[in-house]
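Hi there, hope your week has been kind to you so far. For a while now I've been wondering how a particular protein folds. I'm sending you its amino acid sequence along with the backbone structure tokens. Could you read through the record and tell me how the tokens relate to the sequence? Take your time with it, there's no hurry, and the full record follows here.
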Amino acid sequence: MAGKDITPKTTRRTTDEAALTRLDDLADDQDYSDTDLLTRASIPPVSWPEIGTKVSGTILSVNRGIQTDVDGNVRTFSDGTPRPQIILIIQTDEHDDEDDDGERRVFFSGAMMQEARRVMKRLKAPGFRRGGEVTITYREDGEKTSKALNPPKLFDIDYTPPF
């Protein structure tokens, strides 16, 4: 029976075509912000090398995180509860090289978090919001509380809510 065509005469979509059709049929109203942060290129953090260092920009996202120490270990309160922090991603005018899009991460904990609370209370704002404008300035060093630790960095925060 050489030469006989035994290919089925039904038309079948390939597995790839079927998968794409199923994906097209899905309503894509899911919030991907948390997972996008994990899969995109790393956003550089703002560093505070000296008094007077300032960063300004438009808030792109507001995220909650857990504080870690320099070794990556989770920082906890005395009862074992992880210490929370706020992580803002802001669009700045800073560009370290031609591939730098100007986005920066700002980590709020400790003295910076206390200042943020004071600012929100003064503005009667619920907190940072996407689209808001923020400027953070390393104002001075606080009082050293331990010989083993550097003094806390104290900040001024100017915030304009988007509404």
Summary: The chain has a mean pLDDT of 85.
